[in-house]
Amino acid sequence: MRIAEAMEAPLDIEPPTYSRLSQALATVGVNMVGLWSQQRQLLAFIGLVIATLFQLIFRPRRWRVTATVAHVQQSGLNAVPIVALLTFMVGAVVAFLGATVLQDFGATVYTIDLVAFSFLREFGVLLAAILLAGRTASAFTAQIGAMKSNEEIDALQAQGLDPIELLVLPRVMAMLISLPMLAFVGMLSGLAGGAMVAALSLDISLTQFINTLQKTCR
């Protein structure tokens, strides 16, 4: 009876209390440990991909050309319209805002330099990379995650096939091929947007825009 009563009796044990500083330090420590573990896994994945690439670079028969071309179409060619539209609108906005500020100083012609430097150096590559990461990389992650949940990757390993070679390398190579192409399209579209605003709002003809652009890029 005493043992049963002792087991049924509530335990009035108060949890230990910590100061806010201790809790904040503990949270920072947990986050740092998680970040360090994530970075180690990322470096290990990059090293595995590079090692697999060097193993296949001298074995053309094992190259997945068809899969790479299909992923280039999916990640590059299909993304050209959205990249062109977004960079065109951003180029128009940059040119309009620059013209608004420079008009007070009578230097609206430098709007061309503003658009040229911003897109040829920064915005073209940056916007293309953001769209490629948000549109294509997330799609690749979802595809491989679905294959992982359906145990398709385990089936490939059971057949003696390398998932890195079959699934990862074609996608990585496709993104490496698509990013310069999309960056080039983004640069041209951004300059086209700036040229449109310059022609409509600043009375700068397309010929003058191109001539100034050539002098700026020399």
UniProtKB/TrEMBL annotation:
<dbReference type="Pfam" id="PF02405">
    <property type="entry name" value="MlaE"/>
</dbReference>
<keyword id="KW-0812">Transmembrane</keyword>
<feature type="transmembrane region" description="Helical">
    <location>
        <begin position="114"/>
        <end position="134"/>
    </location>
</feature>
<feature type="transmembrane region" description="Helical">
    <location>
        <begin position="181"/>
        <end position="202"/>
    </location>
</feature>
<feature type="transmembrane region" description="Helical">
    <location>
        <begin position="79"/>
        <end position="102"/>
    </location>
</feature>
<protein>
    <recommendedName>
        <fullName>ABC transporter permease</fullName>
    </recommendedName>
</protein>
<keyword id="KW-1133">Transmembrane helix</keyword>
<keyword id="KW-0472">Membrane</keyword>
<dbReference type="InterPro" id="IPR030802">
    <property type="entry name" value="Permease_MalE"/>
</dbReference>
<feature type="transmembrane region" description="Helical">
    <location>
        <begin position="41"/>
        <end position="58"/>
    </location>
</feature>
